[in-house]
Structures are given as C-alpha cells and as structure tokens.
TrEMBL record:
Database matches in InterPro entries: MoaB/Mog-like_dom_sf (IPR036425), MoaB/Mog_dom (IPR001453), MoeA-like (IPR038987), MoeA_C_domain_IV (IPR005111), MoeA_C_domain_IV_sf (IPR036688), MoeA_linker/N (IPR005110), MoeA_linker/N_sf (IPR036135)
Sequence similarity: Belongs to the MoeA family.
Entries under SMART domains matching the protein: MoCF_biosynth
Listed cofactors: Mg(2+)
Record keywords: Magnesium, Metal-binding, Molybdenum, Molybdenum cofactor biosynthesis, Transferase
Lineage: Bacteria, Bacillati, Actinomycetota, Actinomycetes, Mycobacteriales
Protein name: Molybdopterin molybdenumtransferase
GO cellular component: cytosol
Annotated PANTHER family: GEPHYRIN, MOLYBDOPTERIN BIOSYNTHESIS PROTEIN
Organism per entry: Mycobacterium terramassiliense
Known role: Catalyzes the insertion of molybdate into adenylated molybdopterin with the concomitant release of AMP.
Catalytic reaction list: adenylyl-molybdopterin + molybdate = Mo-molybdopterin + AMP + H(+)
NCBIfam families reported in the protein's UniProt record: Glp_gephyrin (NF045515), molyb_syn (TIGR00177)
E.C. designation(s): 2.10.1.1
TM helices/strands, residue ranges: none
Length: 391
C-alpha cells in the first residue's frame, strides 16, 4: 500500500542514492574537444619521427596552452606548442610528446623520442557521442553517475523521490532520553530506532513525535504532520488493553480507515494498516524488538520498492543451525541470530539471546534474523534454515 511518488527533476547534490526515473541521453560529446592526455608538447608526428636521445629534434615553441585556454590555435610545421593535460590541442596536431621525453624547454624544445600519430590525444566523443543513452531508468545515482551527469552539463537528474515518513511513538510512560525518570516511566526508544531504520532503507523522516495515551494529543500530532508524509509509522497502542491510543483514535473495529489484525508471527503479532489524510499508515506493536522486526518484515521492502531501489528485501542466506530450538506452533518466528558465513554459501547460525520481544540488547548485536516457519515446532541441530542478513 506504500505508493511511489511522481518522478521529479532534482539538483545533482540532492540526487545521490535515488533511482533514475528515465533514461538519460547525452546532449554533447565527451571529451567535448580534442585535448591532451599529458603535460608535454603538441607536435606533428612526422616532424619528430627521427628523434633519438643522441640526436634530438629541436623545435621552436610557438605557444603555451594551459587548460582553459579558449582561443583557437593552429600548429605550424616544424614547431611545437607547450601544452598541459586537458588543454585543447591546436589544429594540425597529430601527437603529444610527454614532457619526460624532452628537455622541457620554453623557447625551444629538444624532442628525444618519436611519437606515433594520435599519441596522447583524447579525441572528442571517444567516451560519449552526442545522442548516446548513458544512464538507464532504474539505475541508482552513485558518485560516478553524478560525475558523468555534471561532465555532460546536466544540472539536474530525473529521479523517484524519497518516501517521506512520519514516525510516532505512543505511551504515557515514555520519557525522552536524558530526562529524569519517575517511578513507572521508561525512556522512549522506538521513534529514534524506527527513524534510523527509515533512513537506512533510503527514505526521509519528516518528523519524529511522541504522544501520550491521549486521543486528542495523538490526533493533533497527526493533523500537524500527516499532510507532509507519504507514510506514517506508529508504535504502541495497538494491543488489546484499555489504553490503546492508536486503536482508540481510529476505532477499534477499523471503521476509520485503519484495519487492526493479529499476525501469526513472533515477535510482532498486533499490527494495523490503512490510509489516513492521504498517507499510508502502518501501526506497529510497542515492544522495541517487535517494532523493529515488524519494520524489517513489512515496511522496509515496501518502502524500497516504492522508491525503485534495488534489493528491497534483506539477503536471505542458507545456514546450518548449530543448536536445537523450539518455536511456537502456528507462528513464524524470527529469532535474533549470529550468522557465520561460509565461502561455499552455506554458513552456520546460532540463536542469540532470549526470543521475548523486550530483549533489545540482543538485537543490537545480532547480525541476522533466523526465520523459522510457522509449521515448525522443533528444529534440530544441523537443520538448514534461512537467515535474514542484517549486516
């Protein structure tokens, strides 16, 4: 349900990491003009054909051509132009002699070695000819892509914009890190964690907010930020208790655009999804491990697909279980895991920490999620399973 935004043209400085929405066709040549590949001397190859270290060919240096010189020059027979790397070669030039093969003279130059026709000259269009499709729709904008676009004189690129995401945590017990805790209070961690996950997925966080278990306050925050968001992610307030502010705000029967369900998954059973103020909303459970695992399973792939990014899902790697485990019947279980990769592609894996959804410490150090199918109750040591690679 996460919808892609219309393509836009953005300045090169803002394009990195985004996906091209259209092919890009070169309007000019690269190189733009014939230029020197070396610091040296522009010559006619036939004029220096007999040069040797013992009997150098001496030519008058008629011009100095630094990079950036814009007037058009012509090389006369039996003369040389001192030329710098990247400078335009004068008409009549058939080779460039590197300065290392000369005495480096400024008024006249002694050429110690011949050079064949075309030596050290970069011809106009030898990299890119005008009209060439140089970048393809669906390609990720990398530093090299930016360099090519700039070299072709393009100030902008057509891209699929980043998804804009509002992240909200709910709960009257939540306190910002750094503030003193009263009895019964805890530090709020989900919003900073989920905002980090959003950015890691390639999207943009438009706001991070925390609401108490108060429908009016929750709704006020939505009213303030939802219009700027493509996706709203909430955590907490979706279970079966009496103070479930997200459910209360949207109607526990899902009569206000949000459907609340129980997913056959551990951790992360209570979930919700719908549309609010033109944006998709996904409501996640409040326990931190449940929230982040649910993000990985349901949101990250959809976010990346909406932005056209490659590899929307984490890599799924086969691994042999180094211990025996049990799993709840009828639930797909994601256990925090330590994956040891192997050169042949099938490594080993061990579960890491308890399976309960409040053990955040273990998730912070895990490098994988062990995926145990819902119809499996017992898994023996030596069984091959799939592991979601988080590294």
């Amino acid at each position: 349900m996460i919808r892609a935004r219309p393509s836009v043209a953005v300045a090169l400085a803002q394009a990195q990491g985004l996906v091209l929405a259209d092919d890009v066709v070169a309007r000019l040549a690269l190189p733009v003009f014939d230029n020197s590949a070396m610091d040296g001397y522009a010559v006619r190859a036939e004029d220096v054909a007999d040069a040797t270290p013992e009997r150098p060919v001496v030519l008058e240096v008629a011009e100095d051509i630094p990079a950036g010189r814009t007037d058009e020059l012509t090389l006369q027979p039996n003369t040389a132009h001192r030329i710098m790397t990247g400078a335009p070669v004068p008409a009549g030039t058939t080779a460039v002699v590197p300065v290392e093969d000369t005495d480096g003279g400024a008024e006249s130059v002694a050429i110690h070695r011949p050079r064949p026709v075309g030596a050290h000259i970069r011809r106009a269009g030898e990299d890119v000819a005008p009209g060439t499709t140089v970048l393809r729709k669906g390609q990720v904008v990398t530093p090299a892509v930016l360099g090519l676009a700039a070299a072709l004189g393009m100030p902008e690129l057509p891209v699929i914009p980043r998804q804009r995401v509002l992240v909200m945590s709910t709960g009257s017990e939540l306190v910002s890190p750094g503030e003193p805790l009263l009895p019964g209070q805890i530090y709020e961690s989900n919003s900073i964690m989920l905002a980090g996950a959003v950015r890691d997925a390639g999207a943009e966080v438009v706001a991070v907010a925390t609401a108490e278990d108060d429908v009016a306050q929750f709704s006020s925050i939505l009213d303030r930020y939802a219009a700027d968001a493509d996706l709203i992610i909430t955590s907490g307030g979706v279970s079966a208790g009496a103070y479930e502010v997200v459910k209360d705000a949207f109607g526990r029967d899902g009569d206000q655009g949000v459907e609340f369900v129980k997913v056959a998954m551990q951790p992360g059973m209570p979930q919700g999804i719908g549309r609010v103020a033109g944006a998709t909303i996904v409501t996640l459970p409040g326990n931190p491990v449940s929230a982040l695992v649910s993000f990985e399973v349901f949101i990250r792939p959809a976010l990346r697909r909406a932005m056209g990014l490659p590899d929307p899902e984490r890599p799924h790697r086969p691994a042999v279980l180094a211990e025996s485990l049990t799993s709840p019947r009828g639930k797909r279980q994601f256990r925090r895991a330590l994956l040891n990769r192997s050169k042949d592609g099938v490594g080993t894996v061990t579960s890491y920490g308890p399976p309960a959804s409040h053990h955040l410490r273990w998730l912070a150090s895990a490098n994988g999620l062990l995926d145990i199918p819902e119809d499996v109750v017992e898994v023996s040591e030596g069984t091959e399973l799939q592991v979601w690679d988080l590294s």
